[in-house]
């Protein structure tokens, strides 16, 4: 069933989810970037090919665009990364358009709780 993965690295998509309020996008950007970069670095160090989303998902259209982009990229799995508190509907929207399986991931960060 997984024979197609034997000849290449596993390709993992990473989508970041954020607070849905526009006024919080700029102040939370460094937090989202920091934790996404740590996750991507760790995955790459472990031999995965990583395809990150193009923006933190905080609107439905961003969720759709990024889900479709990961489908087009042919990723084998997707990680939903929650670095800060996020509105749950955006993960639901993205999941409708991106490949499966999906893993939900959050760092332990009491200042900005994710999941």
How do the helices and strands line up, and which of them pair or pack?
Blueprint (H helix, E strand, L loop, with lengths): L10 E7 L7 H21 L3 E4 L7 H14 L3 E6 L5 H10 L4 E5 L9
Parallel strand pairs: 1-2, 1-3, 3-4
Helix pairs in contact: 2-3
Write a concise synopsis of the structure shown:
The chain contains 3 helices and 4 strands. The protein is an alpha/beta fold and 115 residues long.
Account of the protein in words:
The chain has 115 residues and is α/β, with parallel strands linked by helices. The chain has a single domain (3-106), classed as Rossmann fold (3-Layer(aba) Sandwich), CATH 3.40.50. It contains three helices and four strands; from the N terminus they run E-H-E-H-E-H-E. It has a four-stranded parallel sheet with strand order 2-1-3-4, with helices on both faces. Helix 1 (25-45) links the parallel strand 1 and strand 2. The chain is globular and about 45 Å long.
Keywords:
alpha/beta; four-stranded parallel beta sheet; Rossmann fold; globular; single chain
| Residue share in β-strands | 15-25%
Oligomeric state, counting identical vs distinct chains: single chain
CATH class term: Alpha Beta
**From the coordinates shown, what is the CATH architecture?**
3-Layer(aba) Sandwich
DSSP helical segment count: 3
